[in-house]
Amino acid sequence: MQGEAQELVSPEQKKKSSGRSLDVEDVANVALFLAAFIGVWQLIYVLGIYPSAILPSPATAATKLADLAGSSLPVGIGTSLLRLVVGFTISVALGGIVGLAMVKFRAFGKTMSSFAVGLLTFPSIAWVPFAILLIGFSDFGILFVVVMASVFSVMITTYSSLRNIPPIYIRAAKNMGASGISLFRHVMIPAATPALIVGMRQAWSIAWHALIGAEMLITTLSGLGYILSVGREFNDMPQIIAVMITIFAIGIVFDRVVFLKLEEKARDKWGLTQQR
Question: What is the pTM of this model?
Answer without folding.
Answer: 0.82
